[in-house]
Predict the structure.
Amino acid sequence: MSILWQLAEKVYFSAFVDDADGIDLDKVAKNIGKTRKGPEKSRGAVTIDGTEGVTIPADFIVGTQNDVIFKPTEAVTIDDTGEAVVEIEAVKSGVEGNVPANTITKIITPIAGINQVTNNEPTHGGRDAETDAELRERYYQSGGAIAGAATTDGVRATLLEVPGVRAAITIQNTSMEVDNEGRPPKSIHCYVLGGKPEDIANAILSSKAGGIETYGSETETVKDLSGQEQVIKFSFAEVVPVYIRMTIRRSTKYPLDGDGRIRTALVRYIGGEDADGVIYSGLAMKENVVYYQLTKVAGIDGVDDLDLEVSTDGTNWNKNSIEIASNQKAETSHENVVINYA
């Protein structure tokens, strides 16, 4: 009988975003037009040395010594310097495609006139399918607004569905006058972090109300369902870099990977790229970096005491919260978090 009651309880709670998991959470999210984001492929660039005039085809394959495979996104010809910089994408989706600099050195499909290849920078952007926790966080970010609804919240919710978009905000001018930011009367201004311009423009077109003008520094022309061209404007968000340096006093409970855990916790909270190349959304746009919250996030088991400072330029440090404007988004990375021991 107890098993039956447990099953009934699970069925009941599966209707709530806080308690649902797996396919049940997918169904709850679908109620507001959200779907779980699938895995994404890592991207980057390689420098290829070879003979001038040799064309590197789009099916040219390179990889690491551990057989993480990449292909060019388009064909490129080696110029008179004897080299070409080629944009690449991992063949398989997932975090394993995020590889360090100078590790893509294997030419898998040899071509006459191509001598060597290397990536001077790490590849990034590869990620596994969205976890339950990440889907819930995106649900909360949208405030429960229905993606596709012709409201500012609906436009924002739709933008958060775009692959690669980590944050978005929509500001409207409801007056009949140009506002103090230069927005035309009866217009919306979308600020977006991440994503491809064409995908962003299509998302705005599909969710904004008809007859409402768009405004911003970026301009894209996309077609509506009838095939007519529509000009969509928006702006990319301004990133506010966050640097953190801290001195901790450890107890015997401090784990061997404690430094990594602290860095990951801070990156997940603020948003940015972790050591494995995964990019976390973290704080929403316009959301301040609260100093007290940072000390809580960093205080993992085994940390007896900590002294933490923040900076936006890596030079001037303080113990204050960082204010973020409506067109800004705070971002950090594992490299921006420095840990010392007392």
